[in-house]
């Protein structure tokens, strides 16, 4: 199933997304997931289907945390002058950094270089802690979405840790939808375009640490809850963005996450 979170006349709602002859529509409303008690479900009879591209989309998840994975593509580690990690490099982004498809990324005045990082992200569907080697990791996954792990590169280098550089408001665009209809292990293309020019072109088959390994590694230390977001790393080709730019991250089977860049 594919679903999105969007702004309706009655407030935020979740909707099932279906393909109508090549066009995506929000076909029906869905009850909000357990991690979002603030959304009031509207009577199904009051909703009329709407084309996805005409809806005001919201961030598709309401996470307690965003656990990211750094340098999970060999060529990306090399382009930044870093060694390929021997185990996953984890860091957190703030939930307040989340924005939706078409919302603006704000370039802060205190950073001289703000980069895009297009990524496939896992959406957690069930509470999980210390996932065993004999367990099927997929039972804990609700689906997948797109994330742009926006990074103030100069602050990342100067701070020595990454919380500020990756945690600014608007530094985690996510969306446009969540789907459980793709298989990253089979190899899915991850592409990023800046003002229409292809800048990143990777494939999930090149992940250093695959998703099953990542979730076991993360939950050995951190309990994950429904709605938590796990961006899995970015391919090579990261580059700076400037106010006036538009960055688009496209992933097979999900769609395209597009965001303009403005002065923060």
CATH class of the largest domain: Alpha Beta
Note the run of SSEs as H and E. Answer: EEEEEEHEEEEEEEHHEEEHEEEE
Largest sheet: 10 strands, mixed
CATH superfamily of the largest domain: Fumarylacetoacetase-like, C-terminal domain
Helix % is 10-25%
Radius of gyration: 18 Å
Structural class assignment: mainly beta
Strand element count: 20
Notes on the structure:
This protein has helices spanning 74-79, 153-159, 163-167, 211-219, and strands spanning 2-8, 11-20, 23-30, 50-51, 56-57, 66-70, 89-93, 98-99, 105-107, 114-115, 118-124, 141-148, 151-152, 172-179, 189-194, 197-203, 229-231, 240-241, 246-251, 255-263. The chain is built from 4 helices and 20 strands. The chain is mainly β. It has 2 domains: 2-54, no CATH class; 66-263, Fumarylacetoacetase-like, C-terminal domain (Fumarylacetoacetate hydrolase, domain 2, Alpha-Beta Complex), CATH 3.90.850. Strand 19 (246-251) and strand 20 form a beta hairpin. Helices cover 10% and strands 39% of the residues. The chain is globular, with a radius of gyration of 18 Å. The model has no long low-confidence stretch (mean pLDDT 96). The termini are far apart. Strands 1, 2, 3, 4, 5, 8, 11, 12, 14 and 17 form a 10-stranded mixed beta sheet that branches. A 5-stranded mixed beta sheet has the order 9-20-19-15-16, with no helix packed on it. A 3-stranded antiparallel beta sheet has the order 13-10-18. Keywords: Hydrolase, Metal-binding. GO terms for molecular function: acetylpyruvate hydrolase activity; isomerase activity; metal ion binding. Belongs to the FAH family. Pfam families: FAA_hydrolase. InterPro entries: Fumarylacetoacetase-like_C, Fumarylacetoacetase_C_sf.
């Amino acid at each position: 199933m594919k679903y999105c979170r969007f702004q309706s006349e009655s407030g935020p709602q979740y909707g099932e997304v279906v393909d109508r002859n090549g066009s995506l529509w929000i076909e029906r409303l869905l009850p909000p997931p357990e991690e979002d008690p603030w959304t009031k479900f509207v009577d199904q009879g009051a909703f009329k289907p709407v084309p996805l591209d005409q809806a005001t989309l919201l961030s598709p998840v309401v996470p307690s945390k965003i656990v990211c994975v750094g340098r999970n593509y060999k060529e990306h580690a090399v382009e930044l002058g870093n060694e390929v990690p021997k185990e996953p490099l984890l860091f957190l982004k703030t939930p307040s950094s989340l924005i939706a498809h078409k919302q603006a990324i704000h370039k802060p005045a205190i950073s001289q270089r703000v980069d895009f990082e297009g990524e496939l992200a896992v959406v957690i569907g069930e509470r999980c802690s210390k996932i065993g080697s004999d367990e099927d990791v997929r039972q804990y996954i609700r689906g997948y979405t797109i994330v742009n792990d926006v990074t103030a590169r100069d602050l990342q280098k100067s701070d020595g840790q990454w919380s500020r550089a990756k945690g600014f408001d608007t530094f985690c665009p996510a969306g446009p939808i969540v789907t459980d209809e793709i298989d990253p292990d089979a190899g899915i293309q991850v592409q990023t375009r800046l003002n229409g020019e292809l800048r990143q072109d990777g494939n999930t088959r090149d992940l250093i640490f695959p998703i099953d390994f990542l979730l076991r590694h993360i939950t050995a230390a951190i309990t994950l809850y429904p709605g938590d977001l796990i961006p899995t790393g970015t391919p090579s080709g990261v580059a700076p963005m400037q106010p006036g730019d538009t960055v688009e991250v496209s992933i097979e089977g999900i769609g395209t996450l597009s965001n303009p860049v403005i002065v923060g």
